Amino acid sequence: MSVMEGVSNGEEPEVVVQACMLSEFSESTEVRALFSSLPDIHHDAASKEDTIERFVVIMDRYQEQPHLLDPHLEWMLNMLLEMIRNEKSPPLLVHLCFKFLYIISKARRCTALNVRGYKIFMQLFPHEVSDVQPVLDLLCRQDPKDTETWETRYILLLWLSMTCLIPFDLSRLDGHLSTDPGLNRESIMDRILAVAKSFLRVSDKSRDAASVLVSKFVTRPDVKQKCLGDFLDWCLTTISQTSEMTMEGTVTLDGALQSLRGSRSLVVNLAESSVTGSVQATKPDLDSASLEEDYDIPQEVENVIEQLLVGLKDKETIVRWSSAKGIGRVTGRLPKELADDVVESVLECFSFQETDNAWHGGCLALAELGRRGLLLPSRLSDG
């Protein structure tokens, strides 16, 4: 009986299922040969394209079973990094290696969520103190307008975000900068923040990597103390002064919105409230309502929330999506009552007087709030 006959009779197409299931990374020898050939073919456009195409075909086989690649990630990474770090490697070869690194990170994504790829892969990148300066220098030498090398900038930004996890004050890397004011050089901290800001304005995928870098960098204790306030001012100024009527403005807004705020679950806030409530029960002279009055939310935060709510109605999908992400992140840091107010504002998008864009933005925001566990049970009946 053929597979199609089995399907028509209501039976499971077991042959097809078995054919799709792989047991190991069977092309490891071929991939080693492909990598080894890069120094010889990087200058030949036709050979280069054939090699890239073959590698993409191989990686695509493992989109459904990316875990099979895990035992091989380290040697693949090391082979490519060896060529990247070789001072004799020409720029074309270096860019080609970064393109292969991007293909690997893309193949390693979880197909259900499409977000885990770089997080798993980038953990294998060297991220010692000695790696910060070389990675930053290489990134600063890249041309943001070169459309052929965006994979290089994307990987470098993610790599730099990994090096930012070192448990040392970054000011230690500045050497004699603090003792020799005659030298007109920026500190490592200022350079990283400047390059991150510059790539938040680009139109390619490296903008997403720049937002990852910012999220890890500005939340470092040493950076947060010195730079977080100025960076938030820059974000708010950018959002308030940028017009979404142009493509450049849309890109800039997206970068600024993606870079805002971290992640904290409302469950934590509710748990704290319940603990505090149990304490208050033993003190009849205080009521739980007074707790809400103790929260002092800065006006800047309210302005950000207002901008994000407006962004939910934008004509550009990417702006609506970024605004929804921002609303989820900000709401997770608010106390219960204020978080519920944000949810109520989001629900106002579902008015018959609103446009299709507003409805779509509202759906994106509710999905993000639900994903983060920020929708209170009392609000479910309002959906």
Automatic annotation (TrEMBL):
InterPro entries: ARM-type_fold, ARM_TBCD_2nd, TBCD. It comes from the Eukaryota. Pfam families: ARM_TBCD, ARM_TBCD_2nd. This is Tubulin-specific chaperone D. It comes from Labeo rohita (Indian major carp). GO terms for cellular component: lateral plasma membrane. GO terms for molecular function: beta-tubulin binding; GTPase activator activity. One of its GO terms (biological process) is post-chaperonin tubulin folding pathway. Residues 261-382 form the Tubulin-folding cofactor D ARM repeats domain.
